[in-house]
Amino acid sequence: MNKRETYTPGYSEVAVRYMKRRYAARDAAFALPRLKPGMKLLDCGCGPGTITVGLAEAVTPGSVVGVDLEPSQVALAEKTAAERGIKNARFEVASVYQLPFPDCSFDVVFSHALFEHLVEPPAALHEIHRVLRPGGMVALSSPDWSGNLMAPRDPEAERAIEVLMAIQKRNGGNPYVGREFGRLLQETGFLRIGLTARYDSYEDVPLAAELLAERIEEGAGKQVVTSPDLDRAEVGELCRSLRRWVKHPAVLFAQAFVEAIGYKEP
Prior knowledge:
By secondary structure, the chain is of the alpha/beta class. The chain has nine helices and eight strands.
């Protein structure tokens, strides 16, 4: 990311637990059937590496490089790989806007839950296009927040989600970037574009809600919520509503993800 954008989820203990719930068999399921042993793969925005290690297993004896802008995440990813006994993955600190690799270095570039935080998705895609070999594949996954499912319905909890989206927009991101993937890939020159969608139904709704509340509280504290009819006291009440909502005996929070595949020209 560049100086104009911020990773809205942050890197708190709650955020890291939230990111560690991801794994390749679910979050990269749309890409896994296209991976082959011996491929070289780049994972952009690898976070703690819980998806990356599954990708590494899929391309063995090939290799995987995971990059993330946050050094603490790279350290966690290295630990994840070591604990899993993964020998064909390495990790380094790098920006998706300036990937430290020569042209045509990878067969596949994968990225999960990164593009919704970027100010300049086209610039990131051009850099991904550069490091892909001719005929190489890009696989992207990001949420579209308009597709959230929350049960039971709670106007205050739903309003809290709207405030979080406002914070993400103010931080330079786009909560609806998933629906833009087709156009963005086409404009970058990718071919044979395919789009799918799925729901991620959170098995630990209280964890997801706590992260949302934490991010809203911090965002409000930094005055990134600019709605003229919402002061900090009201933000606090929205977060309390979100935390009350998850105590219902039957609660659902599911998020729509758009998944996109594209290929570089041969």
